[in-house]
Each structure stands twice: as structure tokens, then as C-alpha cells.
Amino acid sequence: MAFLAACGGNDNNASNGGGDTAAASTATNETADITANPDYQKGLDLISKSDCLTCHKVTEKVVGPAYQDVANKYAGVDTAVTYLAHKVIHGGSGVWGPAMMTPHPQLSEEDAEQMVKYVLLLKTK
After folding, report:
1. pTM of whole model > 0.85?
2. Tens-of-pLDDT digits for all 125 residues of the chain?
3. In a designed cystine with 3, which of 18, 29, 70, 88 is the match (CB 3.0 to 4.6 A)?
């Protein structure tokens, strides 16, 4: 839902979230080698160029939920990619608490879906 809670729309977050890329690799290598999945790298690239990592980390809650928590909640939900991509683009609140996820209308549906596919690959359950 609001898995990118309160994220703005700037593109200058390389310094804000670059460190989480290593965390993503470490966290995923411990569970399975999902880094070989093309959706993993494409989604990670898009997220690293966005402001997402300002509010989210792979394994810990910041402003919004941890990516792994989102992945675990929506694991096996057939409509998760479409539903969550819509939330990324249009924003929302209430699912993960009162924090509002800022809309990202500059993202294409395709890019938002690719980002969500990456997040969903991070499930631990």
C-alpha cells in the first residue's frame, strides 16, 4: 500500500540512500540469490535513482515500512504489483500507519511496477 510512505519526488537521493544498496545485496544473499533475477536489478536501479530510500530501507522501518515487511505482507497476492504500483504513483496512507506516502506522478506505470517487483522479491517468509 503506502510502502513508499512520505517519499517526495526529487532525483537527488544518491547520497540519501546509496548505502541501502549494499544492505539489499547482503539481506538477499542470506536468503537466496535473487540478484540474478532481472526484475531485481532493474527495480534496484530505478529505486536508487529515486527518493525512495529516504523513507525506506530493506530491513528496517524508517518513515515507511521496510521493503521486506511489504514483500512479506503481499507475498502470493496476485494483484500486488498493479495495486502497489498504483500506490507508488498516486500516494496513500492508512495501511502502515498514519504516515502519508507522497504521490510520484512522474513515474510511468511500467517503472512503478518494476520497482514493486524488486520490493516483492525481498520477502523473507
Report:
1. no
2. 344 444 444 443 333 344 444 444 444 444 558 999 999 999 999 999 999 999 999 999 999 999 999 999 999 999 999 999 999 999 999 899 999 999 999 999 999 999 999 999 999 98
3. 70
CA distance 101 to 104: 9
CA distances, 106 to each of 59, 69, 93, 125 (Å): 27, 25, 19, 32
- Cα separations in angstroms, 115 against 23, 31, 42, 43, 98: 17, 20, 8, 4, 23
What domains sit in the chain, N to C, each tagged with a CATH number?
Answer: 14-120 (1.10.760.10)
Task: Identify the residue whose cell numbers are 498504483.
Answer: 86
